[in-house]
């Protein structure tokens, strides 16, 4: 949706490409700090914080009017989402019984691939109904509400 929002704001295709590149660069750079983070924080803490940060950035994104502002939001999203994937993999490994880990990883991969196909169609149709900003805000609400599930991983691990 970032290219659609950028186009709506009159931002050039090359500037939108830089905004998207900022996300990829931030998601890559945060990986260098993961050993430090893993030594200081639990997986549920990183996942919860990343979901809250992602939800916040998605809520703010529609208010950005310039490529610079979009780039800042994109970079922050890259930091939050780049930190999550390894933590999700670690959490899946820890909370899934050993004999079912292949199934859990397969389900995760299937969900990611299905969302790569479905999300553009759903977002496109939805933006036609409620606007581009509405899609960002709905996604923000969904991601932020998911932080509660990540927070509960703390209780599940302490009691089970």
How many β-strands, per DSSP?
Answer: 0
Secondary structure category? mainly alpha
Helix content percent band:
over 70%
- How many helical stretches? 7
Mean pLDDT: 89
Q: What Rg do the Cα atoms give?
A: 17 Å
| Major sheet | none
Task: Describe the 3D structure.
This protein is mainly α and 160 residues long. The chain has helices at residues 2-8, 13-29, 34-40, 43-60, 67-95, 101-130, 132-159. Helix 4 (43-60) packs antiparallel against helix 5 (67-95) and helix 4 runs antiparallel to helix 7. The protein is globular and about 50 Å long. The mean pLDDT is 89.
What attributes does this structure have?
160 residues, mainly alpha, 7 helices, globular
Set down the secondary structure blueprint.
Elements: H1 2-8, H2 13-29, H3 34-40, H4 43-60, H5 67-95, H6 101-130, H7 132-159
């Amino acid at each position: 949706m970032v290219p659609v929002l950028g186009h709506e704001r009159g931002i050039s295709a090359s500037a939108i490409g830089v905004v998207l590149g900022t996300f990829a660069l931030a998601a890559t750079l945060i990986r260098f700090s993961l050993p430090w983070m893993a030594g200081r924080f639990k997986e549920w803490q990183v996942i919860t914080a990343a979901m809250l940060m992602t939800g916040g950035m998605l809520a703010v994104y529609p208010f950005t009017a310039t490529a610079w502002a979009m780039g800042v939001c994109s970079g922050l999203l890259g930091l939050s989402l780049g930190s999550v994937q390894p933590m999700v993999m670690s959490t899946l490994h820890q909370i899934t019984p050993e004999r079912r880990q292949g199934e859990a990883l397969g389900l995760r991969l299937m969900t990611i691939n299905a969302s790569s196909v479905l999300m553009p169609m759903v977002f496109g149709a939805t933006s036609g109904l409620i606007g581009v900003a509405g899609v960002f805000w709905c996604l923000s609400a969904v991601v932020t509400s998911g932080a509660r599930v990540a927070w509960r991983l703390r209780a599940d691990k302490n009691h089970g």
